[in-house]
Specification:
The chain is mainly beta and 159 residues long. The protein contains one helix and ten strands, in the order H-E-E-E-E-E-E-E-E-E-E.
Length: 159
């Protein structure tokens, strides 16, 4: 019985390590700092700064933490852990922009993120990592909580 427990535990550890290692080829993983002068915002106040940290999780998910400071000095942090399967997962701290998020791969360097608030799509983001993996460009389209059209392009530099 002890041998079975050891074997089962070892298999769980191997599977977890394999899932994390599979994410190492994911170009989205890393810490990204917004290059504000290269970014454009169609509505709202824009940002003084923003940092996006994307980390691999053991089950093939990614944990995404975004820390932003708006031009008016207000700050916001939101966090979510999600798989690249297109299914909704909860978001903490992103209300009223979205209480759920769904993530999917478009291609090797591109992901699509759909934010919903109370089941209604608010914004869709397309995130493209450059071939040299130094720049990440996030195009956001949709509707702000105030009902304004959103068409933003945020450029991030890898840290």
């Amino acid at each position: 019985m002890t041998r079975s427990i050891i074997v089962a535990g070892s298999l769980v550890i191997v599977a977890a390590v394999a899932a994390v290692l599979a994410q190492t080829d994911n170009p989205q993983i890393g810490t990204w700092k917004m290059n504000v002068p290269k970014s454009t915002f169609s509505s709202g106040t824009g940002f003084k700064s923003a940092t996006s940290t994307i980390e691999a999780a053991a089950d093939g998910s990614v944990r995404h933490t975004v820390d932003s400071v708006y031009a008016d000095g207000a700050s916001r942090r939101y966090v979510y852990t999600v798989k690249y399967d297109g299914n909704d997962s909860p978001v903490t701290g992103n209300s009223p922009w979205g209480d759920t998020v769904a993530l999917s791969h478009v291609d090797a360097n591109t992901t699509r993120t759909v934010y919903k608030n109370h089941g209604k799509v608010t914004v869709i983001q397309t995130s493209v990592v450059s071939s040299d993996r130094k720049t990440r460009t996030v195009t956001t389209t949709g509707t702000s909580p105030a009902g304004q059209a959103v068409n933003n392009v945020s450029v991030y530099d890898r840290q």
